[in-house]
Amino acid sequence: xxxxxxxxxxxxxxxxxxxxxxxxxxxxxxxxxxxxxxxxxxxxxxxxxxxxxxxxxxxxxxxxxxxxxxxxxxxxxxxxxxxxxxxxxxxxxxxxxxxxxxxxxxxxxxxxxxxxxxxxxxxxxxxxxxxxxxxxxxxxxxxxxxxxxxxxxxxxxxxxxxxxxxxxxxxxxxxxxxxxxxxxxxxxxxxxxxxxxxxxxxxxxxxxxxxxxxxxxxxxxxxxxxxxxxxxxxxxxxxxxxxxxxxxxxxxxxxxxxxxx
Amino acid sequence: xxxxxxxxxxxxxxxxxxxxxxxxxxxxxxxxxxxxxxxxxxxxxxxxxxxxxxxxxxxxxxxxxxxxxxxxxxxxxxxxxxxxxxxxxxxxxxxxxxxxxxxxxxxxxxxxxxxxxxxxxxxxxxxxxxxxxxxxxxxxxxxxxxxxxxxxxxxxxxxxxxxxxxxxxxxxxxxxxxxxxxxxxxxxxxxxxxxxxxxxxxxxxxxxxxxxxxxxxxxxxxxxxxxxxxxxxxxxxxxxxxxxxxxxxxxxxxxxxxxxx
Lengths: 261, 261
What we know:
By secondary structure, chain A is an all-alpha fold. Chain A is 80% helix and 0% strand.
C-alpha cells in the first residue's frame, strides 16, 4: 500500500513535470492547434481507421509468410553435403541481400520495378507488392533467428535421435525444431512487432493505409492531428503484441539447454 | 527382447556378431583410433577400459555409425556396415547406444521419448507403441513417471529412461558410453543393476566404463584401449588382476589410487 502510494506520487510528479515542460514551450499553442486538435482528429478517424484496417491485413499476411519463408530459408542453410551447395549459397545470398538492403529501397525497387517489367500475370497492386517487399526483408531476419535457434540445439541431441534410427529429416522435425522454435519465440515476436509498424511504409507505393489516409486528410486541412491518430492506432496494436512477447519469454525463458556431451 | 537371435542365418551363428578390423579415425591431425580391431561374439559383454582420450567413446560412436570412419571395416552379423551404400539409418535402428549425459529429449515426456523411434522409425501405431513403452518403463521401474519431463527426474532415472528408449527398439547390440560417469555415487548402482539384468537376458553389449568392480563381475572380456588401439584383452581376472603390459598396470594403479577398484 505504501509502495503503491509512493509510485503514484512519483508518477504524478514526473508526468506533471514533462507536461509542464511541453506546455510551457514558446511554440506550444501553435503545436497544440496543429497536432492535437480534437475536432480534426475525430473527423479524420474513420478514414485513418479504414486505412489502418489495410495495415492490419497486410501485417497479418506478411507475418505468416515471413515465418514460413524464414523457416524454409533457415532449413536450406542447414542442409549438408556438396550436392546442396547451390541451395545453401542461394539461401546465404538471400539473407545477405535482404538483410543488407534498407526496407524503403526494397519497397521502391519491388513496388516500381516489378510493374515496369510489364510481365503477364504479375500483380501491379501497391498493396500486394508492398507485402512482397515486407516479406522479402523480414523473412531474411526471421531466417537468421530460426538458424540461431537450430544451431543452439546441442549436437548430442542430434546424435541421440540418429542413434535411434531417425533420418536427418525426422531428427530435424521431431527433435531439433521443436526445441529450436521454443527458444526463438521471443526474438521472433519482436520481429513481428517491428513488422507491424513497418507495414505503414507501404504508403510510399501509394497504398491507402493509415499513414497515407492521414497524409490525405492533413493535405486538405493543414492540420497534423491525423498523424497522431494513426500513431495512436499503431501503438494500440503493438502494445498487446509486446505484452505477449514478454509473457512468452517468461514462459520459455527457463527451458533447459538439452544436455551436453 | 525375446525374439532376438531366433532368426539368425546359419553363417551368423559362427561369425562374431560384431567385427571391427583395422579401424582408423582422426579428427584433424589428432588420430583417435589407430588400426583398431575387435570382435564381439553374440551374448558377450565386452568392457572397454582406458584413460580419457584413449578412443573408447569414438569407437562406440563409429560402431553406431555416428562418425564416418577414415579406414577399416565394421561388420554387423557378417554384413559390412561401413560400406557407403548401406542404409546407415537402418543399421542404427538395430543398435542401441546410451550416452554419458543421457541425451533425453527435453521437450518430450518420458513416454514420448521412448515411443519416438518405434512410431517414426519402426512405424508402430501409437497405441501399440505406448503399451510396449510402458512395459519397458515398468521394467526399468519408472512406469509411474511416464508423463514426467526429463528435467523432473534424477540423473539415475534419466539414464534408466535412456536405456529403455534404446531397448524398446529390440537392438541386437547395445553400446554403453560411460553411462554412470555423470551420476552421483549413490545413483550408480541402480544403472549398473540394469546392465547386469541385460546380461542375464543374453544381450550383447560393449560397455565403456571406469567401474572396475562392474567390469570384474559382468565382463566376459575386458579390453584395455591405449593410443587408439586395443593394447590388451582377456578375461577380467587376467587383464585386471595380472596385466601383461606396463601401461595397463600403470592405468590400473591410477584407478586404484582414485579409489574406484
